[in-house]
Amino acid sequence: MKQLADAKHYHLTGESEEGSVNERLRLFVVEVESEVETKPEAETKVDGDVRGFDSGNTGSGSQLAGIVFVRAEWVPSYITSQSHISISDTERVSSIYLEVMVSDPLIGKGAGKALIEGVCEFGRSLGKTVLYVDGWAGNEKKLIRGKLSGFGRYYEKQGFQLIADFSLPRKGKVPWLGALIKMNI
């Protein structure tokens, strides 16, 4: 995955490809210690189903609890193309955008919150004042506002506010329903 390779290169060298679509991309990862013994021949998967990986030196492993892709001074084109949503250049420059967040096996255990807190800290270190996120707004916005699998009002509980709803056409399918939300950091 190019984003992971670019992020690793930046982490090791402090340099990114100028003008690259990934120039402002940063990744945050949350791991938890695993009590389960791992097999020495266990494979780390990057492009497939990432569930866990061998820590490499103790025989015990760490489990990937969550990952976030964040970009500074960037808003995706599917948001800027929405005529009813306006993010000025000034707002864009003072913001970071949480592009992708995956927090799997530990719902309710704090991995998502830890990722969001890390992203906010990163944003403040850059002098940014706003964190934008978009998410699925189907199922009556239960992920954003309601109750989904005991997870209720997740983003609102983290301090996000709804900015606007939007929809994206999908060929041969019903539109994808989304919501743009933000948090002052």
UniProtKB/TrEMBL annotation:
InterPro entries the record matches: Acyl_CoA_acyltransferase
Top-rank taxon: Eukaryota
Protein's recorded name: N-acetyltransferase domain-containing protein
